[in-house]
Specification:
By secondary structure, the protein is α/β, with parallel strands linked by helices. The chain has two domains: 211 residues, Rossmann fold, CATH 3.40.50.300; 62 residues, VP9 protein domain (Alpha-Beta Plaits, 2-Layer Sandwich), CATH 3.30.70.2070. It is 34% helix and 29% strand. It contains eleven helices and 13 strands. A hairpin with a 2-residue loop joins strand 1 and strand 2. Helix 3 crosses helix 4 and helix 5 packs parallel to helix 6. The protein starts with a strand and ends with a helix. Magnesium ion binds next to helix 1.
Length: 296
């Protein structure tokens, strides 16, 4: 099966500034793909190129194995930065206008309103909507012609915790129908909670890409202590990749797949009783910072 999106050497220069540098990326059907990066790393520029609103300086991309055309774009719904709706019209009316442009039916309007849980509020004016409701209306609008792919740029920006949770639930719900979602975010937490795959951008360079799961399963670090100097015993264990002394503890980095209980068993066999043994799972945040630091 063809990838939903294939990006090859995609580059965008703004004068001397390289906003996106030779990006290569593949997104497969059904993935919730996160583009994760700090402010100014090139996320919006990338999405803009993928939506054909920004011209690439070089490189290319294919949607569903084809060059981007009017036809391929019909299969993609997007919520980029600030969606424009008429403040004095109701949510329903605003969607009717979009539906007219996209050739969507009344039934489809009702369907997307239901999906984003705005059916009750459909006859209220847009300007009376909360930020979260506005964002949900924008998502509804992007879904009107039943696209195969949904693109979201910072979908939870500016929302309160409740609004954030609602949008994240909504994204998961949309993905559960098998739709492919590509979202840009500077929030690790967001990517970790809603994405299946992600790429990390740093100053226009893609410095990491892979399944979210792999990163979450990162190797373990264990804090150990015991009577006397045990650094040699620790280093003798096959499953250890590094030993450091930190805050009065030994910080032992284990190899992939090795668990703290394996270390404990080994120590016991060597006649060492650990007085302290605590697994410290590296958070995605720490790993993200490491990924960014490694690629300096
Ligand atoms: N139209 C433009 N003209 C000149 N420079 C631009 C333009 N658009 C973006 N840039 C620059 O390109 C770089 C990438 O910007 P971009 O908006 O893609 O980042 P981003 O990852 O979306 O950031 P944020 O998290 O703040 O939304 C930045 O340095 C930005 O200043
Ligand atoms: Mg942006």
């Amino acid at each position: 099966m063809k990838a939903v999106l294939q990006i090859e050497n995609l580059t965008k220069n703004f004068g001397r500034l390289c906003a996106v540098n030779k990006m290569n990326l593949k997104v497969e059907a059904g993935q919730v793909f996160g583009m994760l990066g700090p402010n100014g790393s090139g996320k919006t520029t990338t999405l803009g190129m993928l939506m054909s609103v920004i011209n690439p300086s070089s490189g290319s991309f294919k949607w569903f194995g084809e060059e981007a055309t009017h036809e391929t774009r019909k299969k993609i719904g997007a919520v980029l930065e600030h969606p424009i709706f008429y403040p004095y019209l109701t949510g329903q009316k605003n969607l009717e206008l979009t539906a007219m442009i996209k050739g969507a039916t009344k039934d489809q309007i009702a369907e997307v309103l239901q999906l984003v849980e705005l059916t009750d509020r459909r006859n209220d004016k847009y300007k009376t909507y909360s930020l979260g409701m506005k964002q949900r209306l924008a998502i509804a609008s992007a879904l009107l012609n039943d696209p195969l792919v949904l693109i979201l740029d910072e979908p939870t920006n500016g929302l309160d915790p409740m609004g954030i949770a609602e949008i994240r639930e909504l994204i998961k719900k949309i993905a559960s129908d098998g739709r492919t979602i590509i979202l840009a975010s500077h929030l690790l937490d967001e990517v970790q909670k809603v994405c299946t795959h992600f790429a990390v951008l740093k100053k226009g360079n893609m410095v990491y890409s892979g399944p979210v799961e792999d990163v979450n399963n990162g190797s373990e670090t264990v804090e150990v202590n015991a009577e006397g100097d045990i650094s040699e015993v620790l280093s003798a264990f096959d499953g250890v990749s590094a030993v450091n002394r930190e805050n009065g503890f030994y910080e032992v980095k284990l190899k992939d797949g090795i668990k703290s209980k394996d270390l404990n068993k080994f120590l016991f066999e060597q006649g060492v009783t650990a007085s302290h043994l605590v697994t410290k799972k590296r958070s995605l945040e720490k790993q993200f910072l490491e990924i960014l630091a490694e690629s300096k």
